[in-house]
From TrEMBL:
Pfam families noted in UniProt: Aldedh
Name this polypeptide is given: Acetaldehyde dehydrogenase (Acetylating)
Coiled coil: none
Domain of life: Bacteria
EC number(s) given by UniProt: 1.2.1.10
Domain Aldehyde dehydrogenase: from-to ranges: 12-274
Keyword presence, Transcription regulation: no
Claim: Oxidoreductase is one of the keywords in the record: yes
Keywords: Oxidoreductase
Molecular functions per Gene Ontology: acetaldehyde dehydrogenase (acetylating) activity
Amino acid sequence: MELLDKDLVSIQEVRNLIRNAKEAQKKLANMSQEEIDRITKAIAEAGYKNAEKLAKMANNETGFGKWQDKILKNVFASQNVYESIKDTKTVGIIKDNKEKKIMEVAVPVGVVAGLIPSTNPTSTAIYKAMISIKAGNSIVFSPHPNAKNCILETVRIINEAAIEAGCPEGAIACMTVPTMQGTAELMKNKDTALILATGGEAMVKAAYSSGTPAIGVGPGNGPAFIDKSADIKLAVKRIIDSKTFDNGTICASEQSIVIEKALEDVVVKQLKESGAYFLTEEQTKQLSKFIMRANGTMNPQIVGKDVKTIAKLASLNGIPQDAKVLIARVTKVGHDVPYSREKLAPILAFYVEDNVETCCERCREILLNEGAGHTFCMHGTNEELIKYFALRMPVSRMIVNSPGALGGIGATTNLASALTLGCGAVGGSSTSNNIGPLDLMNIKRLGYGVKEVEDLRGSLTEAEVAVTSEFSSIDKEKLIDLLVKRILEELK
């Protein structure tokens, strides 16, 4: 029977890919650590070798970001991620504590569904394939339709390298006919063990609603607080570097700057000298109407675009040709305040508060409005104040004295190298980790007996022993009296 409807073709393709991936995973599950590591290394090398080609493909197809920065993303996804996971034990017995007599055994989950966004398409595909294979799993990708070709080429390249290194065919696969129905089948199929979702809020919610275990991440909306103890020039440089990297498409990038009133003049001066342009009140209102659509979602036209393009699209006049970042002064936070929300573009909100305490509350307000559980940035050297903010920010990662975009993914910090950043329960995510291979496996624990029943009873009084051994025949009132007596003795 010939399938003519695109949705039916997509569903059937997914079922075929999952069937093949399941068989391939059975072979992966029987491989040694050395064999798995050889395949993982081959994926990393292929991604690194083709970093520039894939970066240009992604930029040309999506129109997002800068291909030069996408090269660095691809290098990070292959080289940096590989270096961070290469020595991790993921096969067989991964820990054996002789003293406590506990043994841990790695168990692959099976077939992983990898949902890939259009903002970081090629780098995310390399990264997800690598951590899935490292954990002994196969992976089937659902590519974003607007980045389908560059994702398919990425999968082709790394799959060929993996097979040459001994990977079973079908272990790394990608839908060629991406539809909503096909992706739904991928997430809900009985043979899909885990969903690894990176993308928009609606897609992540769909992953968690599928009935299949999922690791999904919510939106980032990280504020950056600059304290008076900071090197202001360096702090501003880091924020500008972060916000202009690939035109702001990394979700850990800063979305707002929060400072004390006492620092306003020096910070504004440094931002202007570093290429930031402060919008006039009229320009601020005009751009705000363009940032968000009527339904409250971000306008995709601004995503990954530079200042010059955004100004043209929003019909903004008077913007300097060399402006790197647009900054809007705002005083409110809310769903209907576009600047207070995530903007995957070189646009920043600017908040000036009375003191450190109100700065902290403003940062919390921004995060709880959108981006809870994701990332918070701080610049300063006051260790006590850093701890003060660390205890109060509802995030899974706090980046100190580093560009948020690159610090959050572990490129400029020693956090785990990853392109999927968990947001924890507060952000609606199942984990707060920077996702790696250990998140894509189960751990079987063996516990050897170290005590007998008599050992447990040894610490009880004679009366309590009688109660535990003859509970069914003990009068309830007598039991209560005995327990009350014991509690009173403990209180003395």
